[in-house]
UniProtKB/TrEMBL annotation, chains A, B, C, D:
It comes from Ventrimonas faecis. Homotetramer. This reaction introduces a second double bond into the aromatic ring system. Reduced FMN (FMNH(2)). The keyword Metal-binding does not apply. Keywords: Amino-acid biosynthesis, Aromatic amino acid biosynthesis, FAD, Flavoprotein, FMN, Lyase, NADP. This is Chorismate synthase. One of its GO terms (molecular function) is chorismate synthase activity. Belongs to the chorismate synthase family. The gene is aroC. NADP(+) binds at R48, K54.
Length: 359, 359, 359, 359
């Protein structure tokens, strides 16, 4: 095992580099009987595709998914589901400018030190294309969660200093703008700011927020496989994520216990519910039945067009200007990746929980 | 597997409840030849012991560790190292006040829904005593890391609104105050604030920061087992943690790429190093050779003495006042737990990385 | 991980050496709600205890199990169940005769080469005492299987050339003789033979057979986690086992398809059953609903009193005579170990199978 | 996880059905720097291909492997190696004769009970085509073992009552006959017998033996991940295997300790070696430096042309005659599969063993 496996019950293994033949994923452990077709997966892949707006890279690849196994007569069979997306945009390029240079903010130096050499044609396994495999598997996980009445929705909460206004929050608005912000006004203001970033040959970070509704109580295992711990790993495993919060997150570190504790009460239907949700839907590492709220902080895109100082693998200090089109911000395209990783994590713990007590 | 296993190569399994016979851990995968004695472990356990100050719970248990296996003639043998701490403070108590009540901010409700019933005598597996097993295993991990020249040091960065001043930062000061703050002035001011919290029968959250020095380049696996993702899971699996950051963390979401990228350069010894460390020592999920910096946000202790409204398992709305002494803040005792989980994570990925390339 | 972990859902980790403080096991993943007490486990441990007859080693240790966690008010809580048996027979001995010698048929040489040194006081992790942990965990697995109507029974089928007669097979007879043979006559004849072995300072091998009744259809995962493959690993992991068979085993390699295929038919209750059971209850790696039949071949006890030639770790050829009492045959005490490993394997795959299809 | 994952360090996940789009495998954990090309893998795949002789099925598929990722400039990069073989022989057929019938000796009934329905077009995941993925991954494992000086060679030892004569054993002869027997005379005699089997519309079982040379001492983990236990699982996971032996296997159960113990001695070079090899190269679950010898017993091919009685999923007793060409014996094509599983197992434990002691 070397890092490309995720999950215990609903387990995936991903493969593929940005400049190889393609990227793919195999799911080992999807229950039999789930209706599934390529369109179910393609819908999710289309949401992460580059080239949808001027703020995303122009590389317009088809990214058509092919389901290779595990589905028969429109339903999953319980055997491994292999999926693949061929790389179609592999124009031969001149890599001489970057093949021996360590790009700042990238993993070039680490790859070379760890493995002895590296695929210098792009980010290799650190490329954003790697997330195609996550999203394809995540689409299946979302479909399985839907079977249990659980829905996962992420969106851009902020880009740089620009943030959505909770009073204007409208999830349906998210898909109407290329920034995936559920606030039309914020999206427009942010778009103007990003124009200035492009002009300045710079980039900026942002925050993605994700909500999970319909959770049963008790998903997540005590101690090490807590739901929040598992989500943290899942989200932090997405390239460029530098911070993770559940519920009030870092704000809870400044709160008092009397404020932060969520009061339980018995509602009109006799159900135990919480009055507030500072906990973000998780207590003791287990879902408590309320909405799960998580946030991921993404750093600015490290590839920027302005000249940067760095070193190369000949032991020289050099200056580089990274060519090609790069997103000035990564969060809009990361929204569906956050959904995918959230769904993959929840589905795995949900299935694991089926053995929590004797039936 | 139900959540009490951690690690792949250096793997631990923990057990024990707050009011059972004890807590313990078994390590399967510690290399042979490491000098180890009970004192090595006891030193770490003493750092998490309650009763060290008026801000920590008075339950003064011995918490003496016993190494049960895996060590022969003072060295690890390569076979499982079992360790146990007996619970000694098991005075029979009257649990009738809490046995059917869902304490706010606690996992009582989740445990009951998940397993059908629960050990109502304390937090069970959610008790702070569970961390004894983590710290015992972490002590061994720290000793193994030291063999490779790696050191792990955590401390309290803030409690409520009170924060250490970077200009006064002095790690050696950490062990001189019961709050484990590496800043004498901040510790004194915070202590006064905590007195007021106790008087108000309230609690408060805080932030623990952890530094790792001496890291080689390339620890961490691309994609899902990234070093930062693994650390996030490790730290978020500690009870009460609601947020995690690596390097600049959430601040990176507001930064520009031109600011956030760390410039590489060749130093006087011909070594490639970074000028800044916004990344917190990790690029592409692999250590980059600079200091690792991480932070964990802890929520306020949920057990507070003031009356709280809640529900019980008879479907009634009730009010409770949680008796007994409880820390008004959890972070001072959590410092060594953060070190333990950090060490366990790094040692596992370090050993895994030995197979990254052909020898 | 270094070999002392077993199972995925019902996962155990064992520890302990023959001459350390004790041996133990932790179970992570036993569902909540199973009635369990120490007597349940002790009953199984008593069946593997030495000193029950003149054919077993005289070391009469109490082997009293202590359940340390995971049980509350007589039922499992869903959290880890830790169990321990203290070593009580640790008289200080003179090991100078064997501490630098590689005993033939033992793992001394391998341990020393692999780990750099070894615990020379006994077999260490290769000691028969290691099986205490397996049997303790196996007792819990058997209790869980009983909840699902599944029973596991092993017995000695043969010792040397002496074999039970199928016509005299009577399982209830197994516990009436110290050889655990379900055939009184065969047990008596074999006992005489073993007297001669003791006189000759020699030992002999044997075969244990195990039957599993009450299996539902479909336990076992296709491809690598087939039920038979998992059982093979489980049984072969018991020290001294050199061969494994399911159903007709090696005899199937000489059979014709027309003989070996088990005919399906619909019985009087409308149920699909098999007329014969050459397959031993497993088809395509999954249980087929009929009785599971497996066999394990054990080599002769390697510790024999007669002088043997060997080498030591000073590079010298030497002669040794292994002192102390040793069983002339290992299979009678191995019967309960085979049951334990069979139960641990089936319970793990049974629980895993709960996610085979959508509910 | 549902059975299609194998290995811990050198981990593979396989996918694909006999009548789907293809079969494939991804390797996660192959060290970087191993020279690898498609020809390396194709050589192994060609050895399992059907249609090489009249005793193998006529389905002549190309089985051309495509390496999709993980190799750059002719060397493995340390990232996942995905490989795929497209199914090319998917003529539309009439499955009405078998789609609701449980073929004797096949897993049809188990699949249907476990998953609720099944892919009736062939064996699905139980098809012999599933082994393509094992062999492709095994080819990479063999190449990696060769780097460490380890070679793996299997051959047919017996078919029905026909067995190779040890006096005529010549491994180079193995590839000269379509039965993969390292004994020309035995191969000719067996071929005549198989002609009679075909005429009789029957099939027969056989035994494959596998030798591993060049093993270092100490590969394999004590207790559950013993080398022999791991090999047993690996080999028993191949369809149709009903028995497994290491070294003397079942014969050891009839032997005396004085015969079965292998004497150690110091050879002329000062090296500790064994005079005999009853143990088959493994002591205490670890390689002892001598040749590893294992055997697998395969049952007769269950698909036979003569009419058979069985049941269908409408609850009726029926008779079927399985059409199409089927091998009268499976062992010749299984030889390379046994090599593959042996290599995958050894390479995984070899890499795991790198952390056995401090470096």
């Amino acid at each position: 095992m070397a890092g490309s496996t995720y999950g215990t019950i609903f387990r995936i293994m991903t493969w593929g580099e940005s400049h190889g033949k393609g990227v793919g994923v195999t799911i080992d452990g999807c229950p039999a009987g789930l209706p599934l077709c390529e369109e179910d997966v393609q819908t999710y892949l289309n949401r992460r595709k580059p080239g949808q707006s001027k703020f995303a890279t122009a590389r317009n690849e088809g990214d058509q998914v092919e389901i290779l196994s595990g589905v028969f007569e429109g339903k999953t069979t319980g055997t491994p589901i292999a999926m693949m997306v061929r790389n179609t945009d592999q124009r031969s390029k001149d890599y001489s400018a970057i093949m021996d240079v360590y790009r700042p903010g990238h993993a070039d130096y680490c790859f070379e030190q760890k493995y002895g050499f590296r695929d210098y044609r792009g980010g290799g396994r650190s490329s954003a294309r790697e997330t195609i495999a996550r999203v394809a598997a995540g689409a299946v996980a979302c479909k399985l969660l839907a079977h249990y009445g659980i829905t996962v929705n992420a969106y851009v909460k902020s880009i740089g200093e620009f943030e959505i206004d909770p009073k204007r929050f409208d999830l349906s608005e998210r898909d109407n703008n290329s920034l995936n912000m559920p606030d039309k006004v914020a999206a427009e203001e942010t778009a103007e700011f990003l124009e200035r970033m492009i002009a300045a040959q710079d980039s900026v970070g942002g925050v993605v927020e994700c909500l999970v509704d319909g959770m049963p109580v008790g998903v997540g295992e005590p101690v090490f496989d807590k739901l929040d711990a598992s989500l943290a790993r899942a989200i932090m495993s997405i390239g460029a994520v530098k911070g993770f919060e559940i519920g009030d997150g870092f704000a809870a570190a400044k709160a008092l216990g009397s404020q932060n504790n969520d009061e339980f009460y018995v509602d009109a239907y006799g159900k135990v519910v919480k009055k507030t949700n500072h906990a973000g839907g998780i207590l003791g590492g287990m879902s408590d039945g309320s909405q799960i709220v998580l946030r991921a902080a993404f750093k600015p895109t490290p590839s920027i067009a302005q000249p940067q100082k760095t070193a190369n693998n000949h032991g020289e200090n050099v200056e580089i200007a990274i060519k090609g089109r790069h997103d000035p911000v990564v969060v809009p395209r990361a929204v569906v990746v956050v959904e995918a990783m959230t769904a993959l994590t929840i589905v795995d713990l949900l299935l694991m929980g089926k053995n929590a007590r004797l039936d």
